[in-house]
Design a protein that fits this description.
The complex is a heterodimer of chains A (about 120) and B (about 120).
Chain A lengths: L3 E2 L4 E5 L4 E7 L4 E9 L6 E7 L4 E4 L2 E6 L4 E6 L8 E9 L9 E2 L3 E6 L1
Parallel strand pairs in A: 2-11
Antiparallel strand pairs in A: 1-3, 3-8, 4-5, 4-9, 6-7, 7-8, 9-10, 9-11
Chain B lengths: L3 E4 L2 E4 L5 E7 L6 E7 L5 E8 L5 E2 L8 E7 L2 E6 L8 E7 L11 E2 L3 E5 L1
Parallel strand pairs in B: 2-11
Antiparallel strand pairs in B: 1-3, 3-8, 4-5, 4-9, 5-6, 7-8, 9-10, 9-11
Classes of the chains: A mainly beta (about 120), B mainly beta (about 120).
Amino acid sequence: DQQVKQNSPSLSVQEGRISILNCDYTNSMFDYFLWYKKYPAEGPTFLISISSIKDKNEDGRFTVFLNKSAKHLSLHIVPSQPGDSAVYFCAASKAYGGATNKLIFGTGTLLAVQP
Amino acid sequence: GAVVSQHPSRVICKSGTSVKIECRSLDFQATTMFWYRQFPKQSLMLMATSNEGSKATYEQGVEKDKFLINHASLTLSTLTVTSAHPEDSSFYICSAPPLLGSSYNEQFFGPGTRLTVL
């Protein structure tokens, strides 16, 4: 039972354009969502997060949008840079406020930014 | 940000042997650490939650007798793959939440350990 899904296994974008990575979830109890970036043979690194009380969070070139009614979130990267090429995972967590909540990860999307 | 290290980064072993992987939080204490595994081109799958001073909590389908977890101190958790077999070959990653009061959900991940069982 994949509670967090990223339906696009890969995405190719031209440098300078916008990259949009999508993520869907099924569990309405999730109330905190995160995006991680991962290079091969390395651990994921945190990018940006959003709580369920918001519908948008922006940090530099990265913006995350949350549509709770559709159980959908997306990560926008603009402008895209070749260094953004990596696998992007979305993750979800329940019960905001606890220190030990586990993360449920999506299947990942490989982003390739072409120079 | 907080730093989490793993050792070894890569290990190759023979079938039937046991392998220990260490996860350390270098600049913060962690009462909880998480262990994940990742198969090629697949998601990170949570295996277990390591709790300092108490037993680990395993996810459904994960054999606790095969994947032994010990959280001996506030900065160290170990995962031992006992009697390893080729199907245990995978990329194992640990993570730890930062200190209470900060962005707790932004878990910091170790660099991972590539296990290859021959």
